[in-house]
Every structure is written in structure tokens, then in C-alpha cells.
Amino acid sequence: MPLVKQVTIVGLGLMGGSLGMALRQRRLAKRVVGISRNAATIAMAKRRGAIDVGAATPEGAAAEADLVVLATPVDAIVPEALRLAPHMRHGAVLTDMGSTKGRIVAALERGLPSWLSFVGSHPLVGSEHRGIASARRDLLDGATCVVTRTPRSNEQALRLVSRLWKAVAARVVVMDPATHDRLLAAVSHLPHLLAFCLTGSTPAEALAVAPRSFLDVTRVAASHPDLWDDILLSNDRSVLAAMDRFERDWKRLRQWIEQRQGRSLQRYFQHAQAIRQHLDA
User: Fold this and answer.
1) 151: DSSP letter
2) pLDDT tens, position by position, 156-181
3) pLDDT > 70: what percent of the chain?
4) Domains in the chain, ordered, with CATH?
5) In angstroms, rounded to a whole number, what is the distance separating the alpha carbons of residues 121 and 145?
């Protein structure tokens, strides 16, 4: 049964395209409209079943939307929302798929007209690939999605956005934007930064004999740099705090190696192993 008549997705890359496929497969909207300035992207999104209708401009695409999903890079979410707002009907809801929340939510709660509601969201999925050609209808299956609540949140809009993500993913967790940014800095933003650094600092002659374990731990370093610099800079305080925590442990490990403290290393490894095994369980 459809949740809404029309969902409009702004940005038809990996995330927006995969969401459109999931919405249409589950018949959660009577119509899925996609906005992209690239005509070839719209054509491929139609062929791949991600949208019913495509548009290059927001006027018609947003005017009839019950829900608009901003699936753009994080630095484009606020300007795109403000660009769309004048063309949206009263009572419509906006949400997003961005990897950071604090600054986005604060800017849109200040900047949007009172007759529109914004609810920040972040499905915790992704890939080092991008573009509509990489979209998958099962990308969101079984995923967790964080939905943000603030004192200014419209509860009806929050319920709609939560129902949407529960229908296309599996689990919805509601938290405030600052908590989201602090937690994601630790489990997503810092790991990407480490993968970039490890790859960039490894000598070329070592890369020539890199084993599968090196490829596994650095897989996300294949992610597009033009996405990740904006993510890291838009969550700089939480990322720097995560780097501080990591650096403290890194210095301890270095000290134990220098002092040949094998038992200390082993205890630390056992602790980390237990945490990782718990995650698998």
C-alpha cells in the first residue's frame, strides 16, 4: 500500500537511484519522480526502474510531491532544499540521505518556510562506486537508517520519514543530529580517513605485492574524493575528536612495540578481537 502519492528524489546517483528502485519495487509511492540536470542520467534511471518520470528543473517535479528526498552530496543538500522550497506545496516534507546531520538540520530548520517540514535522515549503506549505473534495488535491504529529531521537529513529518525508511530498510534509530555526527565520525568518517591515509602512505613497491587483507582494509579508499572532503569538513569537530581517540591508542601501541611489550599488545588485540566477534554475532 502506498505511503504517499508522490516521492521526488533530487539526485539520481547510487543512493537516490537505489532508493527509487526500492520505492517502486515495494509500491510505496504511486509515482516516483527524479530530478537531475543530466538527461542521460534521467534516461538511465527510467530504464533501470528507479523513477517513473524525470525532470531537469524543480518546478513541476516538486509541486506535487508529498515527500522530497535530497540524495545529493552533503554540500549541495541545503542549497537544493532552499531552491526547491518555493515550488513545494504547503505541508510537504523534505528529508535527505546525507552522511552528516548537524549543520544541515540547523540550516534548514532556520531557512525553510514554516509550511514545510525537514527531517534529517541517513541510511547507513553505501559503496565506493557512484552513479545511477551502480544503483541496486537491494542496497537498502536490512540496513539501519538514522532519523534525526530536534525540539523543532514536526512529529507527523518524523513519523512519515520513519515509516518510509522502515519500509525500504529494516531498522530506524531516532537520535539528535549532534549524536548522529559524533557516532558516525567514529564508525564511518574516521575509517574512511584511515583507509585514504593507509593507501596514500604505503610505498609503491609494497603495493605491488599487497595481499587481499590490504585490499579489504582499504576498500573504501576507492570512494570519490569530491564526496569525502565535504563529509569530513562538515563534521570536523566530531572527526577531530575521533582522531584524538585513535591517536591515543595508536601511541600506546607504538610504545608497546618500541618497548617489546608483547603481553600488552596481546591483551589489546584480544580486547579488539572480542569486540569484532560481538559485531559478527
Assistant:
1) T
2) 999 999 999 999 998 999 999 999 99
3) 100
4) 4-175 (3.40.50.720), 180-280 (1.10.3660.10)
5) 7
